[in-house]
Each structure stands twice: as C-alpha cells, then as structure tokens.
Amino acid sequence: MAKQEKRDFVQHITPRSENFSQWYTDVVTQTDLMDYTPVRGCMALKPYGNRIWELIRDEMDTRFRETGHENVSMPMLIPESLLLKEAEHVEGFAPEVAWVTQGGNEVLQERLAIRPTSETMFCTMFAKWVQSWRDLPLLYNQWCSVMRWEKTTRPFLRTAEFWWQEGHTVHATAEEAQAETLQMLEIYREVCEDALAVPVFAGQKSDKEKFAGARATYSVEAMMQDGKALQAATSHNFGTNFSEPFEIQYLDKDGALKFCHETSWGASTRLIGAIIMAHGDERGLRLPPRVAPLHAVILPIAAHKGNVMEVCENAFAQLKKAGVRVKLDDRDNVSPGWKFNEWELKGVPLRLEIGPRDVANSVATYMRRDTLEKGTLPLGTLAEGVQGLLQEIQDSLLAQARAFMQEKTADVFTMEELAQQVDGGYARAMWCGQRACEDKIKDETGATSRNMPFDQTPFAEHCVCCGEKAQYVMYFAKSY
Amino acid sequence: MAKQEKRDFVQHITPRSENFSQWYTDVVTQTDLMDYTPVRGCMALKPYGNRIWELIRDEMDTRFRETGHENVSMPMLIPESLLLKEAEHVEGFAPEVAWVTQGGNEVLQERLAIRPTSETMFCTMFAKWVQSWRDLPLLYNQWCSVMRWEKTTRPFLRTAEFWWQEGHTVHATAEEAQAETLQMLEIYREVCEDALAVPVFAGQKSDKEKFAGARATYSVEAMMQDGKALQAATSHNFGTNFSEPFEIQYLDKDGALKFCHETSWGASTRLIGAIIMAHGDERGLRLPPRVAPLHAVILPIAAHKGNVMEVCENAFAQLKKAGVRVKLDDRDNVSPGWKFNEWELKGVPLRLEIGPRDVANSVATYMRRDTLEKGTLPLGTLAEGVQGLLQEIQDSLLAQARAFMQEKTADVFTMEELAQQVDGGYARAMWCGQRACEDKIKDETGATSRNMPFDQTPFAEHCVCCGEKAQYVMYFAKSY
User: Fold this and answer.
1) What pTM did the predictor assign?
2) B161 and A75: CB-CB below 8 Å?
3) The domain spanning residue A417 has which CATH number?
4) Do B195 and B336 have their domain in common?
C-alpha cells in the first residue's frame, strides 16, 4: 500500500549531522518535490516543488516588471552557426549541448542546439530590433527551461534540464549596462534574503570563474548548512563582446553608428536546492513562508467529538479568506501523529491543531516549524495571529541562517588557515589576482574563489597564497 | 530610422476585405506581437504578444486551480521507446518529431524526441505515482512549449514550436474521466467567451478527427471573420488506452488491481491567432480588455500648454492605482495623429486624450477601439468611467463576434447547400457517421467535420452526403 510505504519513508531520513549529502537526497525524494525520470539527468517537478518554483518566479517577476523589464519567449532551438559566433561562449557551452539532427524523417542540414542559454538567439534578434538610440534600452527576460548535458547530476543543484529565467538587455552606453548589471544583482540579493530567507554575499567573480563571453560576472553566493557555497544567481556585463560579432548597432543622436552594450542575468530551480540546504533540519524541510506552497495546515484532533470539525472548517475559511495558503487535513486513515511527521517533513511553517479542549477555550494550538515552539492563538483573530507568526518565522529563518553564515566565515592569512576555514565555511582572504594562486588554492584545499565583495578594504598586505602584494579581498569556499 | 520605417508600415496593412490572409500577416508582424527567427517555423514572442499569452495563461490557470488542478513540470525530452508504446499515438506524432541524437560529443544510444505532447512521459510517471485508490485522482497540468516539425507554418496558427498548457489526469472510474473531460471543455468555452470574447461551438469530434490515442475528443471551435473555423482547444478522454500499455493500475477498495482512466486537454498560443482573426478590423487589432496588455493609453494634446502634462500624470496615477493597465504616451518626437494610428493598430481598447480644452472642462476625451465612438469622461471619476467602458467593450466585442457567428452558420440539407455555406461560414448538417461521407465532403467542398454539438436533436432524416439514415448533427467548415 502506498500509504504504508510513505510512513516507512518518513522514518528513513538519514540524519543531517551524519551525512549531509544523503540527508539532502532523502529529503528531496521524500517530500514530493521532484522525481527522477527515464531521461538521464532530467527531473520532473512534482506539484509541491513546482509550486515553490512558481512562488519564487512571482517574487522575481514582480521585481523585474517594477524595474521596467518585459517578458518574451524565444525559440528553444539555436542553429549551430549562431552558437559559433562568439568564441569564448561556444568554447564554454559546446561540450554540454544536446543536438537535434533530425526533424521528422528529414536529416537537418545544420544541427540545432537545445538552448543551454540564449545569448546567441537574443543577440540575433536584437540585431533586427535595434536601429536607433530611440529603440534603447531593451530590457527583456524569459522564463523557460534550458538543457546542459551534464555528466553528474543532483536534483535541483545540477540537472541536465533546469528551469530558470534569463534576462537579456541592450543599452546605449557602458555606464547603463553596468548599472543594469548591478541593479539585477541587487534584486537577486533581495529575493534570496527577503523571500527565501537565504543570506548571500554579493560580489564580482574572478576572470577564471566568469561566464563564457562576459566582461564581468557578479554573483550572489549562499552558504549551505555544511558550510559549502552555492552560487544562487549571476549577473553579467558583456560590454560589446556579443554586439560586435552579432553586429548589434544603433544610430546615436550624433549620427554615428555605435555598438550596443549588453547584460544578461539568471537564476534557476537551483534556488530550491538552496532553500533545502540552508534551512532543512533533522525532521526535513523548513520552508520560508513567502515561498511555501502551504503556510499552515489545520489538523482536527478527535474530529468526531463535539463540533471540532465545524470549528476547523470555520478556521480554514477564515484563513483562506485572509490570503493564507492553508490546508485542512481531514484524512481519517492516518493518525494525528503520522500527520505531524508528514507536515514537518514537508516543511509547512505552521501547524494548527484544534481538538475538544481547544474548542472549549476558543483557541487553536500551533507549532512553529522553525523553532518547534508551541502556543495558542485565539480563534476570533486567527488570521491576524497566523499572519503575525508567519512573519516571525520568515524573519527568524533569515536570522538563523545569517548567524550561521557569520559564524562560519572568517578572515584567513595563511594557506593553513584557509584550508582549515573552508572545511565547513567561507574564508575571506587577500589575493594577488593571479590565476596561478586561484588554481593552487583549488588544488590544495578544494576551495574555489566565490566572489569579491564590494567592500574591498584590505585587511592584509600579502596574497594568502603566494605572499606577493595583494590586490583583492576574495571569498573562497568549497561549493556545489 | 526605425520610427520612419514603422510609420510606413502602418500605412501598408493590406485591407482585410481584399485579402484576409495577407491582412493577418501584416497585422501580426506590424503590431510587435512576434517575429520570425532563424529556426524554421519557430517564432519569437515579443513583449506585446508574450504579455497577451501571460494574461490568457492567468485566466486559465486560475480556473484550473479552482477546480483542484496542480501544475507540474516534466522533461522536454522523451525517449523513443516511450513514444512507441501506444500504437495510434506514435503513428500520429512520429512524422513530425524533432530528434535529439547527440549529447555533448556523445552519440546517444536511443534517440530522444523533443516532446510534441507529453502523454507518454506523464503516463510513465503516473505508473510510478499511482498505487492505491487513495492516490486518485491526480489532476496535473503543465505550462511549456512543444515542438512539431510542421512543413508549412503561420504565426500563432501553426508553428513548429508553440507554447501551451497540457492537462493530464488520472481517475479511478470511466465516469470520473468523462466528467473531467467535459469540465475542462467547459472551462475552455468560458475562457474563450468570457476572456477572449470569442464565441465557440462546443462538441465532440468525429473518429477521424480525434486525437491520436484518444477514445473521444471534444473541442471548442471558433469562427474567424472569413467564416473559417479555428479549433481553439481540445479535451480528450483516453479511457484505458494509455493506462494499459503503460501499466497504470491501482489497488481498489475491493482489493482488485484495476487500470486507471485518463484524460488530457490543451490550449495554445493559437488562441492569440483566434483573437486577431475574430476581432481585428481595417485599422489593425481590437483586443478584448481582459487579455489586453494595455487597457488604455493617455495621449497629452498640446502637452506644452497650461498644466496638460500634470493633469495627464494625475490621470495616469489614478488609473494605475485602480488596477487599469495604462500607459502615458508622452513621446514628443511623433505627432498625436501618428500615435492614434499606432495605438489603434495595436488594438488598445481605450484611447484617452487630454488637451487644454479637456483640462478646462475637467474631462478626458475617449475613443473606444471597438466601435470607434468618442465621448468624454469626468476626470474626478476617471477610474470608474474607464472600468465601466472596458466592461462595455469586452461585452460588445463578444456580442459582435456572436452575431457574426450566428449570421454565418446555417442548417444545410444538400451537398450544394453545404458547399455554398462553407464558403465563408459553418454548415450544420445531418450526417450518417460514416468516414466515407466525411472524406467526400472534404474532397468536394474543402470542409472538414468540426464537432457534434451536445444538442443532437435531429432536424432531417437523411445524411447530407449519402442520403442514408442520419445519425448525428455535425458542424462542417473550412478550417485553419
């Protein structure tokens, strides 16, 4: 029986403290977020996981619109000749492209790539759409899935197909492109911290780690509970790197034909992995209310007694009307204890129990998923009470994650300190800026450069690795 | 210069009365709905067209949720072996599949189809997800794009890649599957009529015209202004046609293992084509307010005089606050007359002009795009006035289209009458139910069977084609 199997599953989550990686896999598969499919490395987003993605999408999409961006939909296929136009870009992506070579019974004359990202398609269309300075800026975004033929995959963190948004913008000047790049980075920071309750370090990537074809790449980097980094989103300034080969030019006010400056920026279903690994605990998920498919679940206790069910239904109606995403779990084939386990596993922020004693006292008994604290809320003002608690839970998850991130981040001055620090945390180090040192740090400690914070106030004179004069403050960490 | 080019474009729409097909192409390309791309048969949805699709999506998605459906996201690739499992299905779709044969540098052992539709993938996953009667029903939907390698394509109406939703549901009984099939058909009817202002005939497809693999297909059929039919959406009852080869079984309460009953239903970006061809006129688009990216555009007249701009900005703020999708067109490089043309072409339901005289009278002068009627609205209650007019426009577009559809639909009793009637309209005819007559009607008149209305009250005894005993009332029409 399906139900019996699920009950066993709940008991079989590997302890997080014992094996973080296995804990992650157990949580992901046992909470109905996704499932594996017959296509290598491609997952199916089940309703619970898909809804989280829709809520993240809405948080981002609202901010994109407010800053003047418009959504478009581009073809999923890209002719090989377009992919070849920008040399660094094709070098970066060609090895992991899925190729369409046949349409119906016909063998295609030119291979078509399933988009691994859409710079080349956007640029091709921008060359048609931009003529005059009056056409600028173009501030476009699309929601879609992309495909990268990865060798090793993990649910949400690295999958062959993943869902994302990719913004692509065209500007008249370098200054505007840079302002756009930083604006979108700030929006990502805000969505991560305010909606996902995941604190991040925002900064610039090293040349080694930047996007294939970008002049400069910026990222927001989150910390998972094993102290490893997860790149949550990136924002790229292309300068004229793409507009030159794609001939995206505009006639300026002064009558001169000029190359446009471009940006792109993206965030993906990877963010769901970030939520799981930043907040989850031994009991399973802990979802931040802003992106939780369910805010609260109402559990009738001794449902057959008195007017328990009626009071539960009224509470449900009151909460639903107030915009709370609520479910009344009135199943009679599983015990309350089993329901407790299931909804804790699925990370619903608030559990509301209503039994005969609660009815007598005109209250609902709640349990907060973030702290596991229990208390009561008066039924008469249940909606206000629930909304207040949801805000507290949202804030407390962010505060917990922020405290953890601060605790696990430290300045380091030697390679020994760096190696020790990145064993479960971020190391902030002074760095000479040379690729050789980045490579050596990776080889010796397993850590990669994450990003250079905007506050570049030096705290030491010498590169942590080679001892030469330091140029940059850089975060190093092991990463997903 | 881009602007000059666009100005010429506006003057170059082919008269609708002269050449409907060319008028359609002109309108589609000159209103920034879409553009052609370097990939054969694949279009790019530009912001204006993409926004219409998002608004249609929201209308449908809300109704899907209200009826208990949940969104999921499935892989875009389908292994060939899955596609082969249902014989009729593969026969219907294999000739138009785009095949992935290489991943990175590796030649794949099994070809992967870019989904032309996702029945086979959903069924594969359903077989994992369904065990007990307690798991049923599963009411899933996904928003995505699909690919069909069509030989001839037309924007929105038939493209290789198109955007759509596909619902897939699993039920315990035949009765529930049939109820679901009809429920979704009714939702499509409601969206077409209430949101798109496009009236439809709802009914059942003939065996010849049903979906590859379905037991029964139902459709809603719209009428374009050339009198041709456009299939706006379909809803299929599969019975156990897919659950048997895919082994989707559930353990029933009585302890017996039973095959599930399934449905699927879909509607696509084709609906944008329906809106264009059902409502457009010699000046361009006429968008129904419910799915119009812009409800109203405010045009300052003699903007430099008095406080015209200030009044315009106040009007803009008032409307925006009330939830009206409004734009203040304050460009100073084109004339008001040119703006009139552009916004009429783009089908914005309401134009609001505010000049010195309007300011003096505390009114805005409006023009309704549906009737081209002009009038004034007091500025003090502009939001209420605009919302009232938008509702009138929504209603009047539906009424106009419905009157046209009724006028162009007639009962026919002979092949001559049928041939005459389908030259710019729908023929309702009695039909024997034989494929041979359907084929003959197609050969002789170019019309196909559209659907059989739910009201099957016979109005003649003999088949319009063979003269044998009639079995069904059937709509025939030429179609897109």
Assistant:
1) 0.96
2) yes
3) 3.30.110.30
4) no
